[in-house]
Specification:
434 Repressor (Amino-terminal Domain); 3 domains; single chain; mainly alpha; 20 helices
Length: 395
């Protein structure tokens, strides 16, 4: 490792910024991390320290694990796993919170919105640090609220539970994830918001993926589609379209090619009617549907895999899509490339996924499986492949 990487945090940040391809300026790093330019300059000169939140924002913008910027920090995945029991404890008393005062509603709104942004950016350490106290505060506020505020607080609970579930599901805490999904469904019933209920149905599919109950998951999604609001607004169109995207993938896992193609076709029609954006916590639009076309092709396997390569031949996800979705595209593409005998291409795709969302990529089971396969196929390959397999704990 170059000596200048072993200096202070600021020198490490400057180093990783300089080796980006293309090289990232201080202004670009500041914009990507939502940190003031003056702060970046002072950090790199060693004139000020770095808080955990700022370090994680800079690491996400640089596409590296935070532990690479500060050697005394435990790896991010260790921090997240160690924090999961605290997250579980925070929801244990969801219906019988203590009598301590909750934060003001405006502060709760801001905190929930911030946690949702972290979820979309795959910044899981930030979520587990802040969510336990936030969930406790939301439960206090919800149970102590007047009738005119309960619907909004219930909606905030749904959104916060979803952010917590993203961590639990990605890190393999499937029982905790299932519990959080059920709490989402419980809170959503008090919102009288059909679009939010559709979003919950979208997330609930995780439990079917985890159980490999793909046919049952498809039935649940098709029921959600049937009961979704009429698609006469952009939000309603996106809600129905997202359900079709999800249904297409789980139908593919169920090896139901007919249903899978039908659902992705419906999603495509709906996507052409809206602008790509995040609706009720889920990205939807033409780009998201194209990414799901790759997911469908990989889910169906066999003769369908070539479709994934075709989609990716002249297209890549735009940078303004959520990091989790963009990294997922490259993870799925890597699997298609590996199955097609394109080992070098597959490794390049995995490296891109890591640069976009390190925590999401590291914890994805397909990444570990495919990295291990690449290592076996290319036993004498470069040190970079060896380092990658060690990084994601591939065996």
């Amino acid at each position: 490792m170059p000596a200048h990487v072993n200096g202070g945090v600021g020198k490490r940040i400057a180093y990783y910024r300089s080796v980006m391809r293309p090289k990232m300026t201080q202004q670009q790093l500041a914009d990507a991390a939502c940190v003031a330019l003056g702060t970046i300059r002072k950090i790199e000169r060693g004139e000020r320290g770095v808080t955990d939140a700022t370090l994680e924002a800079l690491a996400a913008a640089l596409g590296v694990d935070p532990s690479r910027l500060r050697t005394e920090r435990a790896p991010a995945h260790t921090q997240v796993r160690d924090a999961l029991p605290t997250l579980s404890a925070a929801i244990a008393t969801y219906d019988v919170p203590d009598d301590d005062p909750a934060r003001p509603l405006e502060e709760l709104r801001t905190a929930v919105a911030e946690a949702a942004r972290w979820r979309l950016a795959s910044q899981y350490t930030r979520i587990v640090r802040e969510l336990p106290d936030l969930l406790i505060d939301l439960a206090r506020a919800y149970h102590g609220a007047y009738a005119n505020q309960r619907q909004e607080l219930a909606a905030l609970l749904v959104t916060a539970y979803r952010s917590a579930d993203a961590v639990a599901f990605k890190f393999g805490a499937l029982d905790l994830s299932a519990r959080l999904v059920e709490l989402m469904r419980w809170a959503a019933r008090d919102t009288d918001d059909q679009l939010l209920n559709a979003a919950v149905a979208y997330v609930r599919t995780e439990t079917f993926f985890a159980a490999r109950a793909h046919a049952a998951g498809l039935r649940a999604l098709e029921h959600a589609i049937d009961t979704a609001p009429v698609p006469d607004t952009a939000s309603a169109i996106a809600a129905r379209g997202a359900l079709h995207m999800r249904a297409a993938v789980i139908a593919g896992r169920a090896r139901d090619a007919t249903a899978s193609q039908a659902h992705i076709g419906e999603a495509r029609i709906l996507a052409d009617q809206v602008t790509e954006s995040v609706y009720h916590g889920t990205a939807f639009g033409p780009d998201s549907v194209r990414i799901h076309e790759v997911s469908v092709a990989v889910s169906l396997g066999d003769d369908h895999v070539g479709r994934a390569l075709t989609v990716a031949r002249d297209w890549m996800p735009p940078a303004d899509l959520p990091a989790e979705r963009r990294s997922g595209f490259y993870i799925e593409l890597a699997r298609a490339q590996l199955w097609s005998g394109l080992a070098d291409h597959a490794f390049e795709s995995l490296k891109v996924a890591r640069q976009i969302a390190p925590q999401h990529t590291r914890e994805h089971p397909w990444v570990r499986e495919d990295a291990a396969t690449l290592r076996r196929l290319k036993r004498a390959d470069s040190e970079s492949l060896t380092n990658f397999t060690e990084w994601c704990a591939a065996t």
